[in-house]
Write a structure and sequence with these properties.
The chain has a seven-stranded mixed β-sheet with strand order 2-8-7-6-5-3-4, sandwiched between helices. A three-stranded antiparallel β-sheet has the order 9-14-13. It has 444 residues and is of the alpha/beta class. The N terminus is likely disordered. The longest helix has 22 residues. The chain folds into three domains: 37 residues, no CATH class; 131 residues, Aspartate Aminotransferase, domain 1, CATH 3.90.1150; 240 residues, 3-Layer(aba) Sandwich (Aspartate Aminotransferase, domain 2), CATH 3.40.640.
């Protein structure tokens, strides 16, 4: 046999090691035969991407939205309920501020990695105005959307193996950001019977010596659930008593309906301020999803650490977007008030239509702009010659047969459900859910 690292006379590489499911270890490689076995080739191709990044799943919500848009571009009359973004334009005053900024040479250069000082001051003032939580500009980091704020927060807080309690259903990005930062998501299941709200008892049952962080979201994506103030306070007091950090996502703070009330956890539990990070942004309140401006608020040392990370990852958020965000958070809330009227009407319309479909149970959401109906009674039925195996299969059939795009519950950690965004026109809701109803009526 040839020495290690060389082929023998037959061109064989007998000393090559291949273990399925692991990166290949190659101590010698055939160059004589020109043949590479299929397993080895696949392993080498897989090894081109690191294990850490290869483990990240594509955003299911963005994937559904992209597929719906591609089908529309191809001429198919697809109605999409996948994207979580307002269907309203950004308010004119905000756009005007951005246009003016484009012509100002000040904004053609690098600016501080942590955000424009005037924007950070305005975010602190807006936070005090809207939730009653008082912070300084030094506790604010401006990020490229809420997703970067979340990753920065997890990266600053988590060491490998630290556990993060995550209530399911959850937004698809939470577990991926946690894992990417080295953490371990620990899921706490909720369902429609509890209003998709977890109890302190459930959280306590999930707590272990490795628990470092609780992710808290109210109003919720994907369910639209809103915790009552007493529930928020009880959970915050539990976290404080057990030395657990809270990362709370307040992006939907202004989108609550009926008697529901938004509550900021560190306001109700002031002692939590030193172990709480708030994530927020302009995307939902001001119809600015494409502008990519979010922020994190937290203790100064955590914000400083996250700022250091961002200084190497992306540097400053685009200056024109920051100027637009400054106009948004410094202005009034008249735009979101108008959107809320439309969203409230649409949530009642879509809930009523979905709940009337046999096999579908749809609770009325109290916040955000999503419904999360159960389709568990449809699993195992037959539809157009196919036995429905799971909700992802059902979502695929709905897209193929009714040309309606929805996101399956598998994406949010709870199979047996669908998520639909009602941030779309009344006409599209009526037409799209009507198509679903006609299709699902055929299930036997």
């Amino acid at each position: 046999m040839a020495p290690s690292g060389q082929a023998d006379a037959s061109g064989s590489t007998a000393d090559r090691v291949y273990v399925p499911g692991r990166k290949p270890v190659q101590s010698g490689r055939s160059v004589g035969s020109g043949r590479v076995d299929a397993n080895w080739k696949n392993a080498v191709m897989t090894a081109r991407v690191s294990d850490r990044i290869a483990a990240i799943a594509e955003s299911a919500t963005l994937a559904v939205d992209a597929k719906a848009k591609a089908l529309k571009a191809a001429g198919r009359p697809v109605i999409g309920f996948g994207a979580g973004e307002p269907d309203f334009p950004t308010p004119p005053a905000i756009v005007a501020a951005a246009i003016e900024a484009c012509a100002d040479p000040r904004w053609h250069r690098y600016t501080p990695a942590g955000g424009l000082p005037e924007l950070k001051e305005a975010i602190a003032a807006k936070t005090a105005r809207d939730s009653g939580y008082h912070v300084t500009a030094g506790q604010v980091l401006v990020t490229n959307g809420g997703k970067q704020a979340l990753y920065n927060a997890f990266a600053a807080l988590l060491d490998p193996g630290d556990e993060v309690i995550l209530q399911a259903p959850y937004w698809t990005t939470y577990p991926e950001s946690i894992r990417l930062a080295g953490g371990v998501p620990v899921e706490v299941m909720t369902d429609e019977a509890s209003g998709y709200r977890a109890t302190v008892e459930q959280l306590e049952a999930a707590r272990t010596p490795r628990t470092k962080v609780l992710v808290f979201v109210s109003p919720s994506n994907p369910t639209g659930a809103v915790y009552e103030p007493a529930e928020v306070k009880a959970i915050g007091e539990w976290a404080l008593a057990n030395g657990i950090w809270v990362v709370t996502d307040e992006i939907y703070e202004h989108l609550v309906y009926g008697q529901a009330q938004f509550s900021s956890m560190p306001v109700l539990v002031p002692g939590l301020a030193d172990t709480c990070v708030i994530v927020n942004g302009v995307a939902k309140t001001y119809a600015m999803t494409g502008w990519r401006v979010g922020w994190m608020i937290g203790p100064a040392d955590i914000v400083k650490a996250a700022t250091n990370l961002q200084s190497h990852a992306t540097s400053n958020v685009a200056n024109v977007s920051q100027v637009a965000a400054l106009a948004a958070v410094s202005g009034d809330l008249s735009a979101v008030a108008e959107m809320k009227v439309a969203f409230d009407r649409r949530r009642r319309l879509i809930t009523g239509m979905l709940d009337a479909i046999p096999g579908v149970t749809c609770p009325l959401p109290e916040g955000a702009f999503y419904v999360y109906p159960s389709v568990k009674d449809l699993i195992g039925t037959t539809l157009r010659g196919q036995r429905i195996e799971h909700s992802a299969h059902l979502a695929s059939l709905i897209l193929d047969e009714a040309e309606v795009a929805v996101v399956p519950g598998e994406a949010f950690g709870t199979p047996g459900y669908l998520r639909l965004s009602y941030a779309t026109s009344d006409a599209d809701i009526t037409e799209g859910v009507g198509r679903m109803a006609a299709l699902l009526a055929e299930a036997t």
